[in-house]
Amino acid sequence: MGSSFKNCPYCSSHLIKPSHTLFNYYIQCTTCQATGPKNRTLEGAILRWNNLSETVLSATLIQNNDLLTRIMKMEDTMQQLEVELHTSHLE
Ligand SMILES: [Zn+2]
Question: How far apart are CA 15 and CA 48, in angstroms?
Answer without folding.
Answer: 17
